[in-house]
Structures are given as structure tokens and as C-alpha cells.
Specification:
With 383 residues, the chain is mainly alpha-helical. The protein has 18 helices and no strands. The protein is elongated, with a radius of gyration of 28 Å.
Length: 383
């Protein structure tokens, strides 16, 4: 997405995705009249639109993930048109006030035609884009390239009849394909994007606000995080925004814990190298009673247990709680050992360094271990 990538041609699928994203942030969760609650998309419908966008992006950004995500994309392709078709806001207000000169059948046909426009073409375009990604699983009678062409052409007609249509067309007309990205689109527009304001009104949309903002800033969220969200099981998506928000909170908590453990392991590796690098002609005298090997085992095993749990779809709270208690005990034992040594331990540690595996080291450098403990506790809360 960054300019320095030197993109000359984004490809039709990628351009289609960019067009839909621009249309979503311009129109927000509303139909033609943003001030009318009657025309606000239902939360589940908006979630379905966002899910489709995120899933499509994840596949486009890393095509090698396609096989892992094909079922998720297929679920999106099936759910999105249905959600929009049955949403109370899926037809423009004018459809509710059809010409009284028309008979009942004519009014019904016009209403159906308006209703099937599926959120001013956003739903239609996304359905075709997703179909191009999942291929014959969506419709055995058509190939991917056919869906790609239909999606690309449909993307130019998005927002027909919507007040934001003029801005949408101006953006397309003003940019070459290589610059037709959300990053370019966002310049000078972010203050007027009602979708971001809408997301800020309820906590359950906080991830989606960050997700949209990251593209507007030209720095999309970590792809592995987006992939994990796309892989959330379909029944959870069907349960609605609150259920999805809870699941995303678990994903974020697990990722945070993974990152903190990596930082701790990197610190241990660095400290071990530093310790073995001390030597020379006059090697320092080690602290013979430092609880090195014994405490290394105490710290290492709960870390391994935690890593094993967060690799699972459903971490066991009991295992996490036990591991947290062991890490806390190891940290406290290290502090007690240091206190018993008084000033000597501080002076010696600064001069020669405490062996990396001992709790004496963690007592003098507690931040990384404390961060792991804190992150594990936060994951325990959301499980």
C-alpha cells in the first residue's frame, strides 16, 4: 500500500477492493440520508460488509493464504447478499414513497429492484469480488476471471444515487490506477468520514475503527492479526458484533502475550551472551550461591506451558493460572534472594552481571517478566 512499493498496476481485484473500501468509508453505515435512523444498516449487516472486506484483503495481500481462507471467503459470499437483502435499510427512502399511480404489482417490482441494489452496489460488488476468490465453490458454472471482470466493472457504479457518489467519482477520475489507493483517497478527507465517528460511539466497533484507520494511514494492521480475525468461526460471526468483539479481544490478548514472551526470550538470549562475553584475562568471580539452574527450570516450564496454551483455539484457564502463579513465585523468590544480599548484589550485578538464568537476574531486570505475567493475566480475564 505504501508509495515506495512503486506499484504500477494494482490489478483488477485489488482496484475493486480499493473502490469498495472508499465507498464504505464515504457512505458509512447509512443509506442516502445519514441523519435518518431509519436508513442505518443493522449492526449485523455492517459487520457482514466489514467481514467481507477484511477477508478479501487478507487473501489479496497474501495469496498463499487462499487455501486457508477459502471457506471463510465462501461464508462471506453467501452471507453478505442475504444480510443486505433483508436489512431494513437496504432500500432507498424513495422506495417507500412510490408513485401512487402505479398498481401494486408495479410498486412491488420497483421496490424489489431498489432493494436488490444491496447498499448502493457495495454488496453486489463485494459478492462478485469474493466469488472471484473462491471460484467454482461459489458457482460451478462460471470461472474466476468472469467474476473478476464483473466485480471490477460494477465497482465503478458503486454509490449510484448516494450523496457521496460525487466524491467517489471525483476520486476515481483524479487518480491513476497506481495511486488509486485508500492512502491517497484519505488525504484531506478523514475529518469528514462518518464511519469512523460511528465506530467511536460503541466499544464493540473499536477493532474495526483501528482496522479502517490503519488503511487510511497507509499502514495496514499486522496481516497475521487480520488473518486470525478472518478465520473466526462462522457461528461467532452469525452471533453478531458483540460476539465477534469478544473473540477479537481474545485474539488481541493472545497476540500481546506472544509478543511479550518473545521479548522476554530475546532478553534472556541477550543476557546470556553478555554473561559469557565477560571473561578475558581476569574473569570475574561468580556468585556461587546464585540459584541459576534451579530457577531457570522454574521460569522456563511455565513459559513453555503458556506458549502451548495460546497456540490452541481455546486456552485452558486453569493451566494459565497455574503458570502465572509459578512465574510470580519465581520473581518473588528472586527479589528475596537479592534482598538477602543487600548492596553487594547490586554492586556485583552492575559490575559483573547476574547469570541470565537465575531469578537474581529477573529481580534486577523485572520488566520483561512482569510484562509476560501482566499479559497472561489479561488473557485470563477475557477467556
Amino acid at each position: 500500500m505504501n508509495e515506495e512499493h512503486g506499484v504500477k498496476h494494482l490489478g483488477r481485484l485489488r482496484l475493486t477492493w480499493e473502490h469498495v473500501f472508499a465507498a464504505i468509508v464515504l457512505s458509512g453505515p447509512y443509506r442516502a440520508e445519514a441523519a435518518s435512523n431509519d436508513l442505518r444498516l443493522a449492526p449485523h449487516t455492517l459487520l457482514s460488509v466489514l467481514r467481507s472486506q477484511l477477508t478479501a484483503w487478507t487473501i489479496l495481500a497474501e495469496p498463499s493464504d487462499r487455501e486457508q481462507l477459502v471457506d471463510a471467503a465462501h461464508d462471506c459470499a453467501q452471507d453478505l447478499p442475504v444480510a443486505l437483502e433483508h436489512d431494513h435499510a437496504s432500500a432507498p427512502r424513495s422506495a417507500a414513497h412510490l408513485d401512487k399511480q402505479l398498481n401494486a404489482m408495479e410498486r412491488a417490482e420497483l421496490y424489489a429492484e431498489a432493494k436488490n441494489r444491496l447498499f448502493f452496489g457495495i454488496g453486489d460488488t463485494m459478492a462478485f469480488l469474493l466469488a472471484s476468490l473462491v471460484g467454482d465453490k461459489f458457482s460451478p458454472g462460471l470461472d474466476n476471471s468472469t467474476f473478476t471482470e464483473v466485480a471490477f466493472n460494477a465497482s465503478f457504479e458503486i454509490l449510484a444515487g448516494h450523496p457521496a457518489r460525487e466524491n467517489f467519482i471525483a476520486w476515481i477520475d483524479a487518480e491513476e490506477e497506481s495511486h488509486r489507493t485508500i492512502r491517497h483517497f484519505a488525504r484531506g478527507r478523514q475529518n469528514g468520514l462518518g464511519l469512523l465517528y460511528y465506530f467511536g460511539t460503541e466499544k464493540r466497533w473499536s477493532f474495526w475503527r483501528s482496522w479502517c484507520q490503519s488503511f487510511l494511514d497507509g499502514a495496514p494492521l499486522d496481516l497475521s492479526l487480520q488473518r486470525q480475525v478472518a478465520m473466526i468461526k462462522n457461528p461467532i460471526w452469525q452471533a453478531g458484533p458483540d460476539a465477534v468483539a469478544e473473540e477479537i479481544e481474545k485474539i488481541l490478548a493472545k497476540q500481546n502475550l506472544e509478543d511479550r514472551i518473545k521479548e522476554l526470550e530475546a532478553e534472556l538470549k541477550r543476557a546470556t551472551v553478555d554473561r559469557h562475553g565477560i571473561g578475558g584475562n581476569l574473569p570475574p568471580t561468580p556468585l556461587e550461591d546464585a540459584p541459576i539452574a534451579k530457577e531457570l527450570v522454574i521460569i522456563w516450564q511455565p513459559l513453555e506451558d503458556i506458549k502451548g496454551e495460546i497456540a490452541r483455539d481455546d486456552p485452558d484457564p486453569i493451566v494459565l493460572q497455574k503458570s502465572i502463579e509459578l512465574l510470580v513465585a519465581a520473581l518473588q523468590k528472586g527479589f528475596s534472594w537479592c534482598l538477602a544480599k543487600g548492596d553487594l548484589i547490586v554492586e556485583t550485578a552492575i559490575k559483573w552481571a547476574i547469570p541470565a538464568g537465575g531469578t537474581g537476574y529477573f529481580a534486577l531486570n523485572p520488566e520483561k517478566l512482569e510484562a509476560v505475567i501482566d499479559a497472561a493475566k489479561k488473557l485470563l480475564v477475557v477467556l
